[in-house]
Structure formats: C-alpha cells, structure tokens
Amino acid sequence: GAGVSQTPSNKVTEKGKYVELRCDPISGHTALYWYRQSLGQGPEFLIYFQGTGAADDSGLPNDRFFAVRPEGSVSTLKIQRTERGDSAVYLCASSLGAQQPQHFGDGTRLSIL
Amino acid sequence: AQSVTQLDSHVSVSEGTPVLLRCNYSSSYSPSLFWYVQHPNKGLQLLLKYTSAATLVKGINGFEAEFKKSETSFHLTKPSAHMSDAAEYFCVARGGGNQFYFGTGTSLTVIP
Predict the structure, then answer these.
(1) Which domain does B87 fall in, by range?
(2) CATH number, domain at B51?
(3) Would residue A105 count as lying in a domain?
(4) Interval A36-62: pLDDT, tens
(5) Residue B97: pLDDT above 70?
(6) Looking at the complex, does the CB of residue A57 fall below 8 Å from at least one CB of chain B?
(7) Which among A58, A105, B45, B62 is placed 20 to 30 Å from A92, CA to CA?
C-alpha cells in the first residue's frame, strides 16, 4: 500500500523566505510526527499530532516554526523568515496510534541559501 | 528523561561475517526500543521493535536484537552481513510520552 508521502522532495530557497512542507500520512494513521535531521545526526523530534491537535510541540525550536493538521490527515510544516541554520532534511512519520511503530516518509531536503 | 547512545559511529565488516551494532539507553523504566535503518536519500525503515513481550527480538532481513535490562543495552546483530546491509542504523527509544529519542546513528560499511 501507499506509504508516507512528503512533498516537495527538495526545496531550495533564500534566507528570509517562507516555506511550507507537506506530509501525507498512511491512510487511517491517527498519529503524525515531524522530525528534523541535520547532516550526520539522528532525527530530532519537532512535533506530534494525535488527530487534528498538536499533542506535543515541545520540539519546535522557536516561534518561526509552526505545523497544522486541520482535518486529521495531511499535515503542513511552516517555517517563517527562514535562516541558513534551518537547512536540514525534514522527516514526517505516521503511526496507527501513539504506541505503534512509526512509518517514515523519504523526507524533504530543505536548503536555505 | 530518555537518552540513547550508539557506541560506534562507524562499523566496517566483511561480507559474510557477523554484524554487531551497539546501543545503550538511559531510562528510569523499561522503554519501548526500536532499530531503524536508513539507506542513502531514503526514509527510515523499521527493522525491529522491543515492547517487553520477549527480550530477544527478531526483525526483518535476518537482524535480531536482545534487550538486556541489567546492562541497559539493546544491541543489533546479524549472523552474516550482506552488501545490501550497508546503510545508517538508528537505535530509538520511546519514553513515557510519545517522543521518539534517536541515537546519533551507526554507519555500516560492508566490504566485499
């Protein structure tokens, strides 16, 4: 079946611009997670949704980062006033429930020039 | 708080020889533990998971991991390495909330 889909696969933009990254989870998965993976590092937790609500957003680094999941399926990670340090691979994962293994998408590679 | 330590950043083995990737966790209770593999420019794939049902866990592609509470370890093993096993491996712990805590990863090289 279809896995977690992330678009775009690559995004290059200039410092100061606004970006949106999209995640389409596996159908029926109620839990959705966003991670950021810098070069040579393991993924770092950003935010977790259970249904439409953000159950845990403690990993968001600052108020330039925001994520939504209005209908409990597709999620969008939004980054305002991008900085060069935001360059990373942004990974999305979904699971059937909070206690279940997470299934990851291929990620969006974000490059801020 | 949870933390995960992968003791080796790089491991190199010859094809057909055993693989050992080491992981230690830090927790005040028995966590749920996972191993994920990441091939270049690909997402993470679940290899296996430990959720207290059995201490020896079998995963996909011939990988196994043994949970040892006394050593707070969850090392990943495979009896015979294959060229296709070359990838980055992550040990992951889930704590009392729903955050997943990733180790820094171990890069496995398989020499023909």
Answers:
(1) 3-101
(2) 2.60.40.10
(3) no
(4) 999 888 899 999 999 998 888 989 999
(5) no
(6) no
(7) B62
